[in-house]
Amino acid sequence: MDTLAPMGYIKVTSVRMQGLLLILFAKQVHLPFIRDIQSTYTRTGLFGYWGNKGGVSVRFSFYGHMLCFLNCHLAAHMNYALQRMDEFEYILDTQDFDMYNTPQVFDHKVVFWFGDLNFRIADHGMHFLRSSINNGRFNLLWNRDQLTMMKKKEAILQEFEEGLLCFKPTYKFDRFSETYDTSGKKRKPAWTDRILWRIKPKAIDTEDENSSTTSSADDDEYPIKVTQDMYTCDVSYGVSDHKPVIGTFNLEMRKKETALVTLTVEGHWSADEDATFTYTILENCESSTWDWIGLYKIGFKSASDYSTFAWVKDDEVAANGEQKWLPTAPGVCVHCCVCALWMG
Q1: Residue range 127-179, pLDDT digits in tens
Q2: Domains of the chain (ranges, CATH numbers)
Q3: Across the strands, what pairs with 104?
Q4: Where is the Inositol polyphosphate-related phosphatase domain positioned along the sequence (predicted)?
Q5: Average pLDDT, stretch 18-44?
Q6: What are the Cα distances from residue 13, in Å, to 39, 65, 177, 275, 308?
Q7: Are the C-beta atoms of 257 and 248 separated by less than 8 Å?
Q8: Residue-wise DSSP of 34-49
Q9: Who's near 216: CB < 8 A, 6+ residues apart?
Q10: Is residue 98 predicted with pLDDT exceeding 60?
Q11: CA dist., res. 148 & res. 106, Å (int)
Q12: Which of 49, 80, 134, 254 could make a disulfide contact with 75, Cβ separation 3.0–4.6 Å?
């Protein structure tokens, strides 16, 4: 948060299950267009009772497009490739969202699946592995990567895309070094840490004229596009025996939604007087008892860092375009901005 806030990014939400942590940041300009945020988690460790393995996810509507980010930590060791697939399918089956049009992960327009998926490089001996890595000939290892091999026979994996593995296997290193495991176990290097994505196939889009998130002629004319700009790892990071994997993507999509609210500051604000502003509802929207408007200090780092806020009562959600006055607490701060999150 300290690093990203000066770059204009705000923490929207997070979900954690033991060592699994997923944090969503967004540029401040996008906040009014991020709605219906929900998160959940699934335990798969110790027959589903322990959260050291499993998945955490965050889903939300972004300019009218439903996105889901799923972070997993799957079963370890070379011989458990099939168990990893079983765990992944179990996570997909058990993760439910309270959204009528996207109740499950695969209902979303775009899904990013990533984490310590724990797939290994099969068959090759240690000498061949290290020789190929040291010479930068990663392509010699691709056909024995378990995830690549499983993708040839698992239909569910064939729906996902992944960039080329043109970086060193990220497991297992001696901590605080760039040397692969020198302990007595001498674990074989592997691309355990991965980032994949899936665009919902048109054939399974549901047709519902009442939903702004389903397939339509506009969606066919302006399909969402995902382009991976970078896929690499940072070998200099030494706190873990894994090296962090980094992926950057460009999402091209039509902005199907506009901001629900615009705000106008009234008069000159000072710390010793009540501050007021008006808000205007730009379109008809379903009101909720959770709707609120917050006052933030300039440079705020998280959506929960408001200095003060006011609930938007049902009787204040008036006809389209009507203005309302909303007082804020006096003496909060001088350098502030008002943000209509309206995220439910």
Answers
A1: 999 999 999 999 999 999 999 999 999 999 999 999 999 999 999 999 999 99
A2: 5-252 (3.60.10.10), 261-339 (2.60.40.2840)
A3: 96
A4: 1-257
A5: 93
A6: 9, 18, 33, 28, 19
A7: no
A8: EEEEEEEEEEEETTTT
A9: none
A10: yes
A11: 21
A12: 80
Residue 327 pLDDT grade (very low, low, confident, very high; cuts 50, 70, 90): very low
Listed range (65-69, 237-241, 299-303, 312-316) with the worst mean pLDDT: 312-316
Distances (CA, A) of 99 to 33, 64, 168, 300: 17, 14, 40, 30
pLDDT over 60 (residue 109)? yes
Tokens of 321: 């375009």
Backbone φ and ψ of 259, nearest 5°: -60, 140
Helix (H, G, I), strand (E, B) or coil at 61: strand
Element (H, E) at 132: helix 126-134
Task: Tell me the C-alpha distance between 220 and 110, whole Å.
Answer: 15
Global pTM reads 0.86
Helix spans in the chain (H): 81-94, 126-134, 139-142, 146-151, 155-158, 217-221
Cα(290)–Cα(9) distance, rounded to whole angstroms? Answer: 24
Report whether 136 contacts 130 (CB < 8 A). no
Residues 6+ apart with CB under 8 A from 1: 11, 301, 302
The sign of the torsion formed by the CA atoms of 28, 31, 34, 40 equals positive
113 residue type, one letter: W
Residue bearing tokens 């379109």: 283
Tokens of residue 192, six digits = 């355990």
Q: For residues 60 and 52, what is the distance between their CA atoms, to the nearest angstrom?
A: 25
What b/e readout covers 13-51, taking b as 16+ CB neighbours within 10 angstroms? bebebeebebebbbebeebbbbbbbbbbbbbbbeeeeeb
* Token couple for 156: 């569910």
Q: Which pair of structure tokens corresponds to residue 289?
A: 């008892």
